[in-house]
Amino acid sequence: MKANFPQKIILSRTDNLGDVILTLPMAGFIMQQNPSAQVLFIGKSYTRPLIEASVYVDQFLDREELLADASLLKNMGADAIVFVFPDRALAQLARKAGIPLRIGTSHRWYHWRYCNRLVHLSRKNSDLHEAQLNLRLLQPLGFDESYPIDSIPKGYGLYKIHPSIPTEWLKPERFHLVLHPKSKGSAREWPLESYVALAQSLSPDHFQVFVTGTAAEGELIRKQMPALLNHPNVTDLTGKLTLTELLGFIAVADGLVACSTGPLHMAAALSKYALGIYPPMRPLHPGRWAPLGKNASWLCLDKTCNDCRKTQDCACIRAIGVAEVKAVVEGWMASKTKKETSLP
Length: 344
Description:
Elements: E1 8-12, H1 17-21, H2 24-33, E2 38-43, H3 48-52, E3 59-62, H4 63-68, H5 70-75, E4 80-83, H6 88-96, E5 101-105, H7 109-114, E6 117-119, H8 130-136, E7 175-180, H9 192-201, E8 207-211, H10 215-224, H11 226-230, E9 234-236, H12 243-252, E10 255-258, H13 262-269, E11 273-277, H14 286-289, E12 296-299, H15 315-318, H16 322-342
Parallel strand pairs: 1-2, 1-4, 2-3, 4-5, 5-6, 7-8, 7-10, 8-9, 10-11, 11-12
């Protein structure tokens, strides 16, 4: 790494949980290559617990607080800021704050005005994963142009997690499986009836199933498919966990099944068994958004399809069979049992 490498770097990613998780490896790679650097992370307030859980982030900065008081960003004394998620208001503020190096994609006109280092980066038609695309924005800092997928997980650093859940939630000698059926409409979702069938098919002697989601998502599930939350082997946790608690719960669970949403990427980043269910449609396909972790995997039809581009009703998602998902989940249980029985 060059001797003049910036010592205080701000990463700005002010959108949702999944995007934030796939941005954290940028902090990891910065700190791994220059341990004396400081990494600050601008995000939305609700993503704060996730960002602060990474050992590679020195300080969380709230976007709204920065916009409300321009002196806050200026007083940080940052050497560089990287706009991983384009944000016109913050880009303008960063220039006013006099941050020497301001990096952004060349595909936003306002970056030409407020940033002084542009990276030619097109996400829409790229074959790279989202995390790889994020890392390309570090090129002006002297980083390589690309990173292999299997190198990404070492950059998450989600080690500052303190599980605090009632021990009676977890039954001993069970595989603790989390189902996260909804996505706030951000992804194509596997049908609720398929989640019901999956829960019904798993032996209660071997599996304990939990359903997570927001309070609003829980109400939607109770309205559309009450059988899922009423199943005797299912514990309804919708609306009952803060983000901090959800992180802690996933950390003590064994595996998670979901569509392309934040908790899926959280599970992958925590090295849990994680299965994502995806549509074969750009840019929503697993090539761009697959969960990245040593125990992460995904299911997607082997085809290219755009039929549901204007609707949330995805025939390709519905075509993923319960038997396929069950086979993956039972394979997880078998692997866990093998590891436990092989311990001295």
